[in-house]
Write a structure and sequence with these properties.
With 256 residues, this protein is of the alpha/beta class. 33% of the residues lie in helices and 27% in strands.
Length: 256
Amino acid sequence: MAYELRDVEVHYGDAKAVQGVTFDLAENEITAFIGPSGCGKSTLIRCLNRMNDLVPSARVGGKVLFHGQDLYAPDVDAVQVRKLIGMVFQKPNPFPKSIYENIAFGPRVLGMKGDMDEIVENALRRASLWDEVKDRMKTNAFGMSGGQQQRLCIARALAVEPEVILMDEPCSALDPISTAAIEDLMLELKQKYTIVIVTHNMQQAARVSDMTAFFTVAKVDDGKRIGELVEFSQTEKMFSNPDDERTEQYVTGKFG
């Protein structure tokens, strides 16, 4: 298993955002997190590479094990965690640098050995972008289309040789053609990487993922809302024969 989550919960200050999440994520599979807004999908995916550490009020409870190692153990270096577990965000966020420098930045910071031109080319090839940009490597990344920028961000994550790629709604700002290109890329990348994706798009989850986790918003006694896991199963089963009525209502569009 790549990940084992055991009773994971997240607080922001005194407010609990997510509670009681337990499941395993297998290697070389795509897992989708689905559910209505505010159910904790993005909060949970950020637990998987300690991005929540960057939020001063955030506190993570339970266990997040990566290859059996507790990611939140005192002796674990969060920077090393983020090297092994890359992240791609909702809005493409290239650096205000050339295409080449966007890819080379991470390997340089980490002091990676090897031919930098080769590292950059390999990352762009894996992100299915090399043929589109090989003749303009010195131009500013902001001149690329939205879909190209998002694939550049994926290439940037791949350049530091991660084991896992987390994607937080990577296609929500993209047109259908760019979305299809990212989905094809995900299916290609899972041969070598473990991928976790947050998506609001039911069809996307059904198309690309092997496993799906459905979250909902639970109201507790004092009227506060907390995200909780309803169901975790194979995607095909989730969309054709879910165990929980709330899942069925969500995937068929009756609520959410």
